[in-house]
Amino acid sequence: MPEPSREHRRPKVAFLLPNFGGGGAESMIVRLANAFAARGYEVELAVFRAEGPNLAAVSPTVRVVSLDVTLWPLAPLAIRRYLSRERPGLLISALFHVNIFALAARLLLPLTRTRFIVTERNMLSVHVRYSKRKTRHFFFLAARLLYPFADKVVGVSKGVADDIQRIARLPDDKVTWIYNPSASPEVLARAEAVADDPWFDGAKPPVIVNVGRLEPQKDQHNLLKAFARLPEAQRGSLLILGQGSLQDELERLARDLGIEAQVRFAGYIDDPPAAYRAGDRRCSLRSGPAPRSRGPAPGAPVRPAGCPGPGSEGYRAGPPAALRRPLAGCAGPSAAPAVRR
Questions:
Q1: pLDDT at 341
Q2: High-pLDDT (> 90) share of the chain, %
């Protein structure tokens, strides 16, 4: 059989990430790359550094390319070299700073045929609240100067898409949104597994599971304060999954609140669906902003944790009221009056 003409071949699809860290963006991009490869596309996953827990989740059919970026200001040059050498038909990047570097590289390749899709996983207007003032102005300026050079800008929710469109002043036809997948067959299968952690054996029900990076935007400070307000008889146990710069601070807060024995900081784990199923009354408090991104196992009720960002599902009242209603729902009706006080 003759080989199909070049015009009819599927384009090479390249994804761009900083690394294979444990965040939701990295996990979703790996899942997308694997899915494209499973459908017969030639797929490459280019990263600044080929390291991080999600590296193990990359399919053998996806080629991993390390750009060996050690200094981030040099990232556009590394991306430019990669695009000149590999010439993918489509480049899909994720995370704001990576998007900026990718679009800067495009300016260095004015004749490139590669189409650029940048994906936004967070509201830039919310993200900059946790940045220095000078950095905040740089983010807005970079978005307005570079995002118009993208072929398409895709938000993880309508709120994210509207936010970046307003900041970057983009026309309607350049911006859209696509929700993250919630439960693939693989996730559903993993959800049936038993959590391999002896902590569950002694954990008092109900077990409340929180998922999110330990960073200011995720606001586990209010989660711990609200959990401490629950009546001790209904408090149960709290499992926090995630890593971040605030871990030591949050562990100190748990000690100061006298709830250290009921709280476990489990760090990043490869199989959170199994943890979602733990306890007699399972409840997941999603601290991450991306809706439907890493949903819990079937049968585990989900309560929004009030994290500012994509979507309007969270409870946005002032601290610690932001978590009163979700935690009351997790602990049960008998705990609700005390939590609301």
A1: 37
A2: 45
Query: What is the distance in angstroms between the CA of the first residue and the CA of the last residue of the chain?
Result: 74
Transcribe 284-313 into DSSP letters.
Answer: EEE-SSSTTSS---TT--EEE---SSSSS-
Determine the Cα–Cα distance for residues 33 and 58; give it in Å rounded to an integer. Answer: 8
Give me the pLDDT at residue 314, please. Answer: 39
Q: Which residues are CB-neighbours of 232 under 8 A, at least 6 positions away?
A: none
Distance CA 258, CA 263 (A): 10
pLDDT at residue number 279 = 46
Whether 2 has a pLDDT exceeding 80, the answer reads: no
Structure tokens given for 118: 């940048």
> Dihedral sign, CA of 335, 226, 235, 309?
positive
Classify strands 43-47 and 152-155 as parallel, antiparallel or unpaired: unpaired
CA 287/CA 291 separation, integer angstroms: 10
CATH second-level architecture of 6-177?
Answer: 3-Layer(aba) Sandwich (3.40)
**Assigned token pair, 229:** 């307000």
- Looking at 3.10.129, 3.30.2430, 3.80.10, 3.40.50, the CATH number of the domain 195-340 comes to 3.40.50
Quickly list H helices, the chain. 24-38, 75-86, 96-107, 124-127, 133-146, 158-168, 185-191, 199-202, 220-229, 232-235, 247-256, 272-276, 324-331, 336-340
Backbone angles phi, psi at 87, to 5 degrees: 50, 60
* Biggest CA pair distance of the chain: 74
Which residues are paired to 120 by β-bridges?
155
Mean pLDDT of 30-37: 94
Indicate if the pLDDT at residue 40 is higher than 70: yes
Instruction: Tell whether the model's pLDDT for residue 243 goes beyond 70.
Output: yes
Domain boundaries, the chain: 6-177, 195-340
Q: Rounded to whole angstroms, how far apart are CA atoms 289 and 116?
A: 24
